[in-house]
TrEMBL record:
The keyword Nucleus does not apply. This is Ribosome hibernation promoting factor. Gene3D superfamilies: Ribosome hibernation promotion factor-like (3.30.160.100). Associates exclusively with 100S ribosomes, which are dimers of 70S ribosomes.
């Protein structure tokens, strides 16, 4: 898993880097192969923004969140990203468990 963390108008301290890697690291439980994750942290006046791009085999996930605290924004980002990936995987499993057409035609 390759995690790239960049900051715009904010210094990415070791504490922030550790927090991002801890929270985003939970995503790798959904995938067996290595991931490419880009996290961008920005500060605009009183808003702390966090956005992430996750690149997995042919699928890209993008999440953006804004909070009053950077750590809250990172937590929210990880939660939203986790939900988006779970929803995608549920859609994939629902599509794979349909019956083949030849079985449906024989029943008619």
């Amino acid at each position: 898993m390759k995690v790239t963390i960049t900051g715009q108008h904010i210094e990415v301290t070791p504490a922030i880097r550790d927090h991002v890697e801890e929270k985003i690291g939970r995503i790798k439980r959904h995938f067996e192969h290595p991931l490419d994750i880009n996290v961008v942290l920005t500060v605009e006046k009183l808003k702390h923004n966090a956005e992430a791009n996750v690149h997995v085999n042919g699928k890209d996930f993008f999440v953006h969140t804004s909070q009053e605290d950077m750590y809250e924004a990172i937590d929210d980002l990880a939660h939203l990203l986790d939900r988006q990936i779970i929803k995608h995987k549920e859609r994939q499993s629902d599509q794979r468990h349909g019956q083949p057409l030849k079985h449906l035609a024989n029943g008619v």
